[in-house]
Amino acid sequence: MELNKDIDQFDIPLAKRTYLNNPYSTLLKKLLLFSPFLFLIFSAAGLLLIRNVELLPLNNLKFQVERNHDARILGHLPYNETPKEKLVLIEPNIEVHADMRDSLLKMREEAKKDGIYLVFLSGYRSINLQNDIFYSLKSVRNQEAAERARVSAPPGYSEHSTGFAIDIGDATQRETDFETDFENTDAFIWLIKNAAKFHFKLSFNKDNKYIDYEPWHWRYEGSIEALRVFESSNRKL
Ligand SMILES: [Zn+2]
């Protein structure tokens, strides 16, 4: 056993010597010689890659901030007027986007089953009508534009022009129509609990820093077109 152990010890350096004489060792030596340069090249490439990856979302965010900053007027985002052919009449004076008709009527039916009576106050509004609402009332009420914009969108900046917005009241408490007090009605409490089932969302909640809280104003987000229309509004910065 002692002898074998000695032979083993002797064999190891021999084996090493054979390895070093291997023809591949020349290549290995060259690689080792160039390795600092290769390391530098790969590091530089890696840094450039990381820099680009990091800059990409930052540039997008910066672009979005600038875009939103430019697009908003007194806190309101711009909206196009929906073409007439996409509108349907649901009540004598209320038109809405065809995409949301069924869902809206279904929501009213389901509420009725729970003893809640929703009343639709205002749907689609043309830019011309919005123009009258904004400027006529601004003049009558002797308001400045910024003050008026807290409660009404300037023409071209109203969700109502898209046909995807609906103002809702409680048929049993009409005195709360278009009033913040609407939030205390059974209709509002029901909507908060159930509206999302029908793809409706409160547009201007209490957190909005530009526009006053409007518990009666809901928008539809149940179709791709509607989601596209409200994309900027939904995007978190
Ligand atoms: Zn509204």
Number of domains: 2
N-to-C CA distance: 76 Å
* Total DSSP helices: 8
Order of helices and strands: HHEEHEHHEHEEHH
Largest sheet: 4 strands, antiparallel
Oligomer: single chain
The CATH topology of the largest domain is Muramoyl-pentapeptide Carboxypeptidase, domain 2
Ligands, deduplicated: zinc ion
Question: Low-confidence spans: pLDDT under 50, at least 5 residues?
Answer: none
Structural class: alpha+beta
Q: Roughly what fraction of the amino acids lie in strands?
A: 5-15%
Task: Report the helical percentage.
Answer: 40-55%
C-alpha Rg (nearest Å): 34 Å
| Basic shape | elongated
Provide mean pLDDT, rounded: 85
Strand order of the largest sheet: 3-4-6-5
Kindly list the characteristics that best describe this protein.
elongated, alpha+beta, 237 residues, binds zinc ion, Muramoyl-pentapeptide Carboxypeptidase, domain 2, two-stranded antiparallel sheet
How would you briefly describe this protein structure?
The chain has 237 residues and is α+β, with helices and mostly antiparallel strands. The chain is built from 8 helices and 6 strands.
Overview of the molecule:
- The chain has 237 residues and is an alpha+beta fold.
- It has two domains: 2-71; 84-234, Muramoyl-pentapeptide Carboxypeptidase, domain 2 (2-Layer Sandwich), CATH 3.30.1380.10.
- The protein is 51% helix and 11% strand.
- The strands form two sheets. A four-stranded antiparallel β-sheet has the order 3-4-6-5.
- The radius of gyration is 34 Å and the shape is elongated.
